[in-house]
Amino acid sequence: MMFGMENNSPLVFAAWLLEHLDWVKLVDVRFALGKPDFGLEAYQAGHLPGAVFLDLELDLSSPVRDDRVGGRHPLPNPEKLAQKLSSLGIGDPGFVVFYDDPSSGQGFYAAHGWWLLRWLGHDKVAVLDGGLPAWLAAGGKLETVTTPTSSEAFTARVRPEMVVDADQVASRNSSTTLLDSRAAPRYRGDIEPLDWKAGHIPGAINMDWADGLDSTGKFKTPLEQQERFFKLEDSEEVLVYCGSGVSAGANMLALELAGVKNTKLYAGSWSDWVSNADRPVTLGSEAG
Asked: What is this structure's pTM?
């Protein structure tokens, strides 16, 4: 049974959270592409008690480079993010729970936050399964006040082995699976609403991150995730990407639930891959 950090699950349930609010550090990471003020405004309109807010583009990413290397959401500077977390009262001993709002198509920002803290070396972190709607359904209340926090010491202990770059993706061996987490039309190159070139990285298979969630926005069970990822059974390594390295977080969490080991994130993802016009792209579907 998934039940918080008591069994090292990447998920906590709303009912559990209601009983443990006094010692959990909550982080609201709601965001909407093209609406830079959406997340903060949503937070100010109502958030879980005691929650702090982190912005995807101001806090959880580095600035986009002019040459687009690193993609649309480059990984944050570890020390800068550690300082931000410290200022919000998140320290090394703390148990952190990220949440978003799957009901508005935001079911991956919290998973991205979970992955980032793991990348920074902080293992006491989880995602509120079902996000804000699950909290409300369990009888949880929202507040509009911002609770003052005292600074804590958060130490960045980066795990570089969790990330790969474009060169490592290009030179992967035959026992490595490359997993594209975008919706099928973007993978095939039928549409491309965000990046300048359509298609996918040659050899990648497609598994939409959204297929890992049920109709209520909660993550499917470990058994269901294992059934999703059965194609990866013989893979020695799984490299995961999406458009800019954010929605892939939902697949990274789903892979964790399924018990799939040796997964790595191509952090720059498709937006980084196409920053070099000489890199090959594929249109349509591929076997696998």
From this structure: 0.95
